[in-house]
Amino acid sequence: MEKKEYILGIDIGGTSIKIGVVSEGKVIESYSVRNIYKGHFNNLLPGIFPLCDKYIKKYFINKIGVGCPGDFKDNVLIKAVNLGWQNINVLQKFKETFPDKEIIVANDGYAAFMAERKYGDLKEEINGVMLTIGKGIGGTLLINNQVVKGSYNMGGRIGHMVIKSSGRKCNCGKKGCFEAYGSITGLLKTVNEYNLKEYPENEKIDVERLSGYKIAQYLKEEKKVVVDAVNKWHKDIVEGVLNICNIMDPNTIVIAGGITESEILNIDYLIEKIHSKGYKNVTIKSSSLKGNTGLIGATSLFM
Q1: Which residues are CB-neighbours of 124 under 8 A, at least 6 positions away?
Q2: Would you give the DSSP letter of residue 277?
């Protein structure tokens, strides 16, 4: 009987960092910690080392896959606007901490795509899109069975296409980016904006320490401010997805990220609106890998 191979996955997000052990596309054990290292990459590895080392020793791990937001070139993180990291040789830093391990690092959207490509709904796809919605928006475009990376490895920056001219300022420096509206960060801003409108006081909410979890709770309570704001957020996502459809006419769009496990994102609404705009053959679905897409993706980089 062939011995199972265990790979350590590290999925770095804007809000949290998930670390876990994956074998054959299944998460064996994992743990999530808050990302308190924004702007301080040098503190990251010392901070997560104890947990990584525990898993490495327990499962005799020799491979580590790392998914991280931002633009990479030759293993150097050029810039991750939501983390305040730039010009960091991520692979070198990990190699210094784990010198005897085989390590691969990549953009987290691409890592998520690799998970779907190997184990999910993009496994047999020729023209598809991986759309990740979290603190920011990332993704990967698959056209004619080829990943679009572009001349400088910056292709597929879905979150930074402009959907509203002269709109909100995005962390990238432009205004009106898809990410500024369709991400979780964008949703929080939309809820705050709606809460300032003229609603009855009993329909308003406490925006102190507002989070996706609280928004889901307010939705269940049918707070009109939140219901209206979430409806507007969905319209913004539709606008971004329509732009993608107009550009590449995909067969399948897979949406991943923690938001897909909440009751906030209404996939049926997205399907109805995209189909009503003439793209009736586009399949839109949440990742079947759920919240583990990024973690499995990090280990799928060894594919």
Answers
A1: none
A2: T
CB 218 within 8 A of CB 210: no
Helices (DSSP H) in the chain: which residue ranges?
44-59, 90-97, 108-119, 178-182, 184-195, 212-220, 224-248, 267-276, 293-300
Report, in angstroms and rounded to the nearest whole number, the Rg of the chain calculated over CA atoms.
19
Task: Print burial letters for 47-81: b (CB count within 10 Å at least 16), e (below 16).
Answer: ebeebbeebbeebebebbbbbbbbbbeebbbbbbb
Q: Report yes or no: 138 and 155 within 8 Å, Cβ to Cβ.
A: no
Paired strand residues for 256: 132
DSSP reduced 3-state for 125: coil
Question: 63 forms bridges with which residues in the sheet?
Answer: 7, 102
> Given this model, what pLDDT does residue 2 score?
62
pLDDT computed for residue 262 by the predictor? 83
- Which regions of the chain are under pLDDT 70? 1-2
Distance in angstroms (rounded) separating the CA atoms of residues 110 and 190: 28
pLDDT at position 249: 94
User: What pTM did the predictor assign?
Assistant: 0.91
Residues 204, 224: Cα–Cα separation, whole Å: 8
Nearest to 26 by CA among 286, 256, 258, 299: 299
Widest CA span in the chain:
67
**What local confidence, expressed as pLDDT, does residue 290 receive?**
86
